Amino acid sequence: MPTVRDVYIFLDQIAPFAGQMPQDNSGLLVGDEGAGVRCALLALDITNEVIDQAAAQGAQLILSHHPVIYLPRKQLLANDPVYRLARAGIAAIAAHTSLDDAAGGVTEALAARLGVGGLEPVLNAGALPEPCLRMGTLPRPLPADEFARHAAKCLRAHVRYCAGGKAVQRIGLCGGGGAKDWIHAARAGADAYLTGDADHHNFIEAKQAGLSFFAAGHYETERLILPPLLEKLQGAFPAVEWRIAQEENPVMLAEESY
Predict the structure, then answer these.
(1) What tens digit of pLDDT does each residue of 218-251 get?
(2) Exposure string over 15-54, b if 16+ CB within 10 A, otherwise e
(3) Per residue in 120-154, pLDDT tens?
(4) Which of 8, 104, 204, 232 is packed most tightly, with the most Cβ within 10 A?
């Protein structure tokens, strides 16, 4: 029977944990690495609802994108997901920025969903690849509003954007919380940049620089990695019953009423 450590080693091969960003906390976060795995869940976040699903399905492992332990903790109380995982004997592995930046990882899955090809890394001011950021090209140039509708349809997302004044074809991509990296895409000659989250000032600064900026949602730009990751894990561990947890976007939108 495969063990938690076997799954960890496989993930380290396809998305090396050593490649995670310094502030990250990917890896085995809860549980016994020697425990056998017959059933496992994949999730974007390990919430109490996901733990309930894992327990009901008899899972021994939850593999999440976001770490269930990220910041230092001073207490673990009964309703805390970490406490509940340990009490239920369910292990937790996170593949976060290591998976964002990997070949076939989050950013590349995002590009594939949007139909962006010819991906290449983007270099920062130190002439090193900027983590998790890729540059690619659309098959044809699109006006910013048309690309926003295209992204909304592909990602099933509500897309916020600003138009930089030129057609969108050369585009920088970073799933999740990559708002600050628009500047690297702009310096590399991008017409546009798409990520998950953005603040008001990101749109202002990008527009002033002549760059169209698109924010398509953290959940929407990252959860799309789960199906291809499930396929890889099923191929590597056919004896394990792999499932994707049922999750809802925690960010809700109010119905329009003015």
Answers:
(1) 999 999 999 999 999 999 999 999 999 999 999 9
(2) bebebbeeebbbbbbbbeeeeebeebbbbbbbbeebbebb
(3) 999 887 788 999 999 999 999 999 999 999 999 99
(4) 8
Tell me the three-class secondary structure of 1-50, residue by residue.
CCEHHHHHHHHHHHCCHHHCCCCCCCEEEECCCCCECCEEEEECCCCHHH
Q: Delineate the domains of the chain, giving CATH numbers in brackets.
A: 4-99 (3.40.1390.30), 106-221 (3.40.1390.30)
| End-to-end alpha carbon distance in the chain | 58
